[in-house]
Amino acid sequence: MPSIKVKHEYGYIRAGEYQLFTQCFKPSNQSAMVILLHGYLDHAGSFNRLITFLIENHFEVVCYDLPGHGLSSGERATISSFEDYITSLQVIYDRVVPSLTQRPYFIAHSTGAMIGLEFAKRSVERFAKMALVAPLFRPPLWQLSKIGLLFTRKIMFINSFKRIFQTNSSDQDYLLFTKRDPLQEKRLPLSWLEALNKWLRFNDHHTSEDLSFLMIQGDHDKTIDSKYGLKKVQESYPNSQVIIMGNGHHQLLNEGDVIRNQTFSILLKFLKG
């Protein structure tokens, strides 16, 4: 827990058909706000160490569970359209920004980073700064996966797969906690992959060269197609900064102490720079 006085508020905010479980952490000597957004099959509680770090550095933190994740409502781990994710972020943004004297910062992981990027592309002035950690631009072997998706749905009549918990961090305690965490989703619905396919097919070519951000990517990340993501950022967002974390896996925000602390330090320097 942080060593300074913190006001913790939580509750539900409606976004269309969804009730989003939202939390706000306000340190007594806050300097600015950071909006955090988690990745697929995850929830905001996984950011506990990052939240503590930001609070101790005088940032107010707002985070919420995506539809179908954590304590938010919605069919588990799926979505009819990725546009619903964008809408959820828009609702949270509209709720918190009017009370601010300056634009908020944004930090997101994986799928959350992709959602935040699309949100910012529609208005580059929404965030003061953006940090995208291991952003999902495309899953690995995506072209082959699309063929397998069609085969599985049309021929095998399978609607979901059991989640295989990957070794996506060098922190063994975190990996064990994730497997036991009741808020971690345990199945992967094909409907989510279908929604992702539609989203990527439509949005992959829409970019904004005026938009810049910090991208932090682990070189041991097997959860996403990191080579494609790096190439995409270099070509489509040339003003962005990219930092490669040696020996870093997908869960950079929950890595072992050394890599995690390095990641946090990079984020802090970026926010305060």
Automatic annotation (TrEMBL):
InterPro entries named among the record's database cross-references: AB_hydrolase_1, AB_hydrolase_fold, Hydrolase_4, MAG_DAG_Lipase
Keywords: Hydrolase
Domain Serine aminopeptidase S33: residue ranges: 30-256
Protein name: Phospholipase YtpA
PANTHER family, sorted: PHOSPHOLIPASE-RELATED
A GO MF label: hydrolase activity
Coiled-coil portions: none
EC number: 3.1.1.-
